User: Fold this.
Amino acid sequence: MEELNLILKEIIAASYDNELKKTQILQYHENDIASVLEYLTKEERLALYNILGDEIVSVIFSYLDNVEEYIEEISNKKAADLIELMDADDAIDVLEELDEEDRDKIISLMEPEVITDIELINQYEDNELGSKMTNNFIIISKDNTIRSAMKSVIKQAADNDNVSIIYVEDDSKKYYGTIDLRDLIIARDGESLEKIIKQNHPTFYATEDISDIITKLADYGLESYPVLNDKDEIIGAFTSEDVIEELSEEMKDDYAKFAGLTEEEDLSESVFQSVKKRIPWLSILLILSLLVSLLISNFEGVVSAIPIIVFFQSLILGMAGNTGTQSLAVTIRLLTDEEINKKNVFKTIFKEIRVGFLNGLL
Assistant:
């Protein structure tokens, strides 16, 4: 990664033609270019934005974790132009990183249709599918011919790169089906569009809870899924990249809970916030430990008669912890492989109890 940073920095700082620079820089992925920004001076960054153009820079900004630092270096109008070019879900992520005053100024400079897309996504709760959907999709009418459908796809592809699956609506603007781009490309001009429309493509509603359907989304393994409103109209798309991102978040959250946290911790949060997340489970463990201590206190006479037993107490308690650690490791692996679901969660718990009991007996 360090070598990549040096190469890109040298290209950006070079004094030759800007078009040649742009060609060389674009040999690298936008995420790689984003990772180099922190190693450039403000002047070099501004020069880079000018070379690459707003469309490419908007993609680069969508990969930044600390985007607010770079937004501050450009004018509000420039920032509004860049955010307008992003998918609505990425635009929301960027805007959420800004303080309220800057966010309001930038939004006031954005086009009304972009603001409408952002407001559509923002109306859904964080746990609902609609809050994570994108407006990056292509939609055509079922009444199109093969030729007119292809023209419409080509026209929309200029603004939407999620083209592998094309969504189809009927005359009343309701979801009708999907078309694979490959099927449209190889279809003959005289054929009916209806012939290549798939009406059994999985669809989901914007109000569905993501945690309830994320495994199902991953099982299908498709490039994208239509997101519908309560009128069965297509209002967004959920892509394979979104599925991977949400699965990762779900796994982090599950792991945090297994570690005794109420939710995943953030590196930037305060000490008080971290304490607040950790203390509930520690309190429960304290109560359980007190119960164990009370139980052990009943054997005070035995301990007085045979003091050497005290030396083995920590060994026994340590082995109990080791047994629990094994069960935790196995359970996390099963969660990672999505082998645990609501149907077999109690079966898994019962099995771990039996395994722990037999190991303890041995």
